[in-house]
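Pilot study result, target chain (164 residues):
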Amino acid sequence: MELRQLVYFDAVVRHGGFTRAAEQLRIAQPAVSAQIRRLESELGVTLLRRTTRHVALTHASHALIATVPCDSPFLPGDLVFRLRVALDAAGAQLAVARTFDQPHPVFALVRRDVLAHLTRFLEAGGRKIDAWYATLNVVEVAFDDEAEAFSNFNTLEELSANEK
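Predicted structure:
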């Protein structure tokens, strides 16, 4: 998996389609499609449901869903494992990464069965992830030993300056 594939995937989701994503990325649409197909092949899953007019994320087929932002490429190798251990031990609905006293709510492992709860939250106008997760049974998982892994990079220059 390459960072470029994740950037393209994020653009397709954000812009609602391959053509608009390609326009925003200033590359040809077939290149975006090819990279997404390659990513799906490498992962062994279909990430996007395609019709002739629309693109949408597929539904999760597993009981647990991991979430991470696309602008933090240096994730701890054991992120999901540590979140899963804590989630199960606490019997929680959501496990969230934390470094020192700072929770990172977008680095999470969530049970799929909270979807109805999330839907109600969004339909009521909720938009802040930390406000949503405050209404759940949450366990925070310390990653003080890898705090730098949660840094985000918003430009290629920032990324290049911090590549490991």
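One observation from the pilot: The chain has two domains: 3-57, 64-150. A full batch analysis is planned for the follow-on phase.
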